[in-house]
Amino acid sequence: MFFHWLYLVPSSRTESVKPAFPSLPEDPESTAVRTVNRSSRSPTLEDLGLSHSALAYDNKFVCSPPGMLMFGEVVCGLLVWTLLGGTEYLRVPALGWVMFVSVVCWVLTVCLLVLHLTTAHTKIAHVPWSTLGLCFNSSATILYMTAAVINATSVPQAIRGRYYYISWVASTVFAFLVVFCYAANSYLSYKSWRSKSDDA
């Protein structure tokens, strides 16, 4: 029959297997070393008197005006330096300043965004975050304004119709959007700094 193998019963006889080599007597010193290694363990943070706390994701910051402006700064700033970096921007030396400002501000903004999203800034209490935010956003506004103006004045040096002409125009538009985001964030940082200085 076709299914006759289903009815086969395996044999219940088991054979004992003898080791090929006789076992050697154990050395007492190696047994003691193994016992010591098993009992020793690396100290934990609690043993050292330290504590670790999990970083939390801050949903409220994402929906707040400073959070949305910071996301706008990151997205538009990324577009500024990627649109510019994909072209022959070194032909115009002034565009090197635009690249420098856009990359440095973008990296610092990403770092601040991560600190706020993970609420790590609340764990570092000795840093005056409102003053730091005001200084950073004000400086970034001024630097990005110079970069956006330089970017706009450099566009006519590109040949109209070439791919980098369109990229330079687009990077100029996004640079002015970043200036707006940093300026609005500077105003919000000023209000936060003023309210905290009035409370103190």
In a nutshell, what does this entry contain?
With 200 residues, the chain is mainly α. The protein is built from six helices and no strands.
Give an overview in words.
With 200 residues, the protein is mainly alpha-helical. Among the domains are: 58-125; 128-189. The chain is built from six helices and no strands. The protein has helices at 28-39, 59-63, 65-85, 94-117, 129-154, 163-199. Helix 5 (129-154) runs antiparallel to helix 6. It is elongated, with a radius of gyration of 32 Å. Residues 1-9 have low confidence and may be disordered.
Q: Return the average pLDDT rounded to an integer.
A: 79
Query: In DSSP terms, counting alpha (H) and pi (I) runs of 4 or more, how many helices?
Result: 6
Strand content: under 5%
**How would you classify the helix and strand content by structural class?**
mainly alpha
Radius of gyration: 32 Å
